[in-house]
Prior knowledge:
Distance between the termini: 37 Å
Amino acid sequence: MSEPHGPLQGVRVVACSTAQAGTVPYMLMADLGAEVIKIEVPEGGDNSRGSTVLPGFPSTYFETNNRGVKSLTLNLKTEEGRDILRKLVARADIFGQNFRPGAAEKNGFGYDELRRINPKLVYISISGYGPKGPNAHLPGTDSMAQALGGIAQAYATPGQPLKTGIVSVADETCAILAFGGALAALTYARTTGIGQKVDCSLLGGQIRLMGWTLATAMWRNRDPVTGQARITGTAERPGISASFNDGDGKPLVFQLNGARAWRSAMTALGFYERLEREGFGDLGIVIDSEEKRAALLSLLDELFATGPRDEWVAKLRAADIVAAPINTLLEASNDPDVVANGYVAEIDYPKYGKRLKVHGSPWQFSETPARIGTAPELGADNDAVLAEFGYTLAQIRDLRGRKII
């Protein structure tokens, strides 16, 4: 008996999507067993197939965002191509697109048209700014959403310009929210027989990612203190999350809340007596004083520089204080907990003669485990998909010859 593949077995998805936020939701579904048919332009395909191609490797961008899906090429500017799309939609559970606002409607596959074909359809639309507002008509990118969504301040250094980051956090956040929204709407559709349109945006996802820190800023009507430390709470119940370098310049972070945890942490490190002499036995005194906050951080910088990172982290963890080394991306990929949980995995790429590290699954299902695939060659599934709808080999050759597929 074969091992069950993912909890989404039987779910059918059609995705007219490109880039990252528009493809990752459906890649995640494919990991979990859904049949995902990716619609691509004949001959050229998704232009991200050519993004970040290292010599002797496939595209890291396309592989990461499209693994496990099927590729069907369709010329949606032709009536025959749109007719095939409508046939796919008629039996699909989920349809996804991330075209520039208005383009799907203009080309005949907006929500109002597709819902007439399949009233149970869950229609996912991903945009840059959201469906309303003064800039709803504009295209969007990850850096645009990072810029507008406030995340640049999260890692800002006082006195230096705000900067967006190199990791596509806005794309990924939007994608994960679209994944969840699609499955929530699918649950409703299967219960009631009524499908619906779900709008997600890069900006909306980024705002959600700011979490309670944004709520605190709004309620206080002022931006949070930034820099190497996040000082939170009140003088009675202070909290701190801060990063420091050890004697070799290797960074670490610890986080705690409350006076008791502060004393436990600093005692475990051997710092408490010095801190108490300097007036920092109580963390709460720095809550409302920028001067005292700066003095405390300077003193901690000095103390952490007297020993190795691994030792500090071990002492803090032994005292039940949350602490960790600050990893680079490459270090993160080799972190023992990342590896042990399969968050990074290895799969074979026979075409390239390589076994490569890739993202694993962030979920572990006890009964229906995820399965990691590879991205398809352009149009690899044309024949098989069209044959399911009764197209003969001669008809498929004719469609290919006329560049319908």
